[in-house]
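Minimal example, chain plus calcium ion.
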Amino acid sequence: MQLHSSSYFIPREGNDFSNLFKRVRIMPLYSFPHIKDMNFKILSHDKRFFVHIDFDAFFAQVEQRDNLKLRGKPVSVGGMEGKKGIVMTASYEARAMGVDTGMSVVEAKRICPELISVPCYGPKYEAIMLNLLEALKDFVPEDCIEQYSIDECFADLSGVVKNFYEATKVANDIKRKVRDLENLTASIGLSYNKTFAKLATKLQKPDGLSVVTQENKDKIYSMPANKLWGIGRRIEIRMCTLGIKTIGELAAANERLLKKEFGINGIIFRKLARGEDTSEIVLKEKKEKSLNHYHTLSEPIYKSEDVLKEIRRIGEYICRKLRSKDLTAGYMHLSVRFENLTYASHIVKLPFFTNDDREIFNAAVKIYGKFRKPCEEMKARQFGMGVYDLHLDTRECNLNLFEKKIILPYYALDKLKSKYGESIIRVGIGT
Ligand code: DCP
Ligand code: CA
Ligand code: CA
């Protein structure tokens, strides 16, 4: 089994890793089951067994594990001592004092003065999840495992167990494995569909194992409807106006009414609430190690403005590619090939993990500054760029909590570009 190093230090500001505090994922990797995820061949949920695994107080538990001084204490992760920040999560000791995710650290300290606030360290948490995904391969084949978020995953046990008795045994074994492997606790939900497995996890936390079968699914019915995938604040409010507050009420609601109000999603919400989720394990694309793009010009160039334009174009292409795979890069490489087939090339560490056009362009310009320059007698024929040390992009949601810097809505811009073409919009990055 390939183990990923998930150890084990608290980064201090100013060291190489301080810029990684922002690398935290809060959004699921996949959105809620859509009509395309439903498997209409499955008419019955008999003999379907899914486990959902979710680490308890994840970042806080990891930091407590790695620092004896934090054990048994109220700890929050996400803000630096004496600095502004948001509580990303809190240890159960801190939760007992009222500290909650999303609170400012200042506010959290006010209600819990003994709170210890520590920075988060994304790659460490990512490695732990990768180890769990690897360990799950001892229980089910790889294509039966789905990472859902930084601390959650699913495993489809349907091929390896015959009934809930056997599935519960496997779920317990997985729990033990998590503890042995990482010395962490996770809560597990086991059910005959993914939605109920995910909801079951919430029934008993921390360190819980909850089983929801067709016979006892009413355990889920008293949960608020907004606990279901896809039901955010706005939909929740609209549901309330229809008199739907709980999952049970949603399950019993009139299908046509839901369709009228929410379209096809209304039908899906109702199906999910009734335990009629037939979605399967969603497989993530294999993680890329690097991305490269080379462009040979039909007309060689030498003027600085043309070169910068070309560098910018390739940089934008690479960034778009990174974003399409939800990745950020830690290193970048730039190369120029001259007419006489000689090369100039150099690699730099980026100031932080990024897929931001501006950062990549700035780094490329810096590299280019070190190169001998093309001239009229020796023009440049090919430009190449590569990015390495790729990690999941976790900044979309949280970076702006930590940085004053303006995050451009690149993902939205990419969508526009893929719909209307490259030239529909450009970000001004100073050329
Ligand atoms: N997280 C974040 N910002 C949020 C919510 C969560 O950065 N708004 C991070 C910190 C969490 C991790 O994601 O540790 C997992 O989120 P969960 O919602 O699963 O919360 P926890 O694992 O912290 O607690 P629980 O025991 O309730 O699952
Ligand atoms: Ca969790
Ligand atoms: Ca979670």
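The two ends are 48 Å apart (CA to CA). Residues 223 and 246 are 6 Å apart (CA to CA).
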